[in-house]
Specification:
Number of helices: 9
Oligomer: single chain
Structural class: alpha/beta
CATH architecture of one domain: 2-Layer Sandwich
Radius of gyration: 21 Å
Shape: globular
Order of helices and strands: HHEEEHEHHHEEEEEHEHH
CATH class of one domain: Alpha Beta
Helix content: 25-40%
């Protein structure tokens, strides 16, 4: 139940940032000379789905692994104090940090020699998954249906969806500062979850959080302060605003390093195991 709600939360959180990252349809403004015998033709702006399809690489041939990266551009800035009024929850649009492209590159690195293809999707498709009826959320069917919908026509042997995940008090990617009367701690974190689906039946083959070590589950729950990959930072690293966070190259490179380390640790074994369970 908790895992299902966490996945739904990521779809809800990312739908808005994904919209800002998508190219918005333009409106034709160039004037045209129209003669009586040649009536003007009305031009329509391309839909978001069309734009998403245009961004799909022109790859042909067999697809062994289709990658559906749901990283988006959301960077969380949060502060947790001893008293609720001291808490802070901000969302910053980290455009240009390249979370999705990084995810695809790590899948390619984890499966050398395999035909890997990025699967594009539109903001409408992401929103539909977010707004799925509650019964589907409980059964995790909305994630399966989302993968099936966005991968239509790709015909890959397997599909790998990598999306944001929840930890202790935090979710996805960001920076969090925990303040107390005596001790303050600031953490940079990147929590992701990996799901591998059969490309024919769309049944879930493998799943699990992206981790940087072999820390047991109970240890991660009780001993890990974040509940996933993190880096302890100096308290002075906590940004004063969204703009300051996005302009900070240390935060950008730190998050990308955490993503790379966790995906490189998790993906190879998961892809090898799922390959053995996928019919050829």
């Amino acid at each position: 139940m908790v895992r299902s709600l966490a996945v739904v939360a990521v779809l809800s959180c990312l739908a808005a940032p994904a919209a800002s990252a998508q190219a918005r349809p333009g409106t034709a403004t160039a004037s045209q000379t129209v003669t009586p015998s040649a009536p003007a033709t009305r031009k329509f702006a391309p839909s978001a789905k069309t734009e998403a399809n245009r961004s799909l690489p022109s790859e042909v041939g067999r697809c062994e692994i289709g990658v559906i990266p749901v990283g988006g551009n959301l960077f969380m800035i949060e502060k947790f104090g001893s008293f609720a009024p001291n808490n802070l929850h901000l969302r910053a649009a980290a455009d240009g940090w390249g979370f999705d492209d990084l995810i695809v590159s790590r899948v390619r690195a984890a499966a050398p020699g395999a035909a890997v293809r990025k699967i594009a999707y539109s903001r409408e498709q992401l929103a539909q998954a977010r707004d799925a009826p509650p019964i589907f959320r409980i059964a995790d069917s909305n994630q399966k249906d989302f993968v099936r919908q966005v991968s239509a026509g790709a015909n890959c042997d397997r599909y790998v969806m990598v999306h944001r995940h929840g930890g202790k008090s935090v979710f996805g990617i960001g920076i969090a500062k925990f303040t107390a009367s005596l001790v303050n701690r600031t953490y940079l974190y990147a929590l992701m979850y990996v799901r591998v689906y059969d490309g024919r039946t769309f049944e879930l083959i493998k799943e699990g959080p992206a981790v940087v070590d072999d820390e047991p589950f109970l240890s991660r729950v009780f001993n890990n302060p974040i509940g996933g990959p993190y880096r302890l930072l100096d308290d002075r690293s906590f940004p004063a605003s969204r703009a300051e966070a996005i302009a900070n190259p240390t935060l950008r490179e730190g998050v990308r390093a955490l993503l790379t380390a966790s995906l490189d640790k998790t993906l190879p074994a998961m892809l090898r195991q799922s390959a053995k369970e996928t019919p050829r």
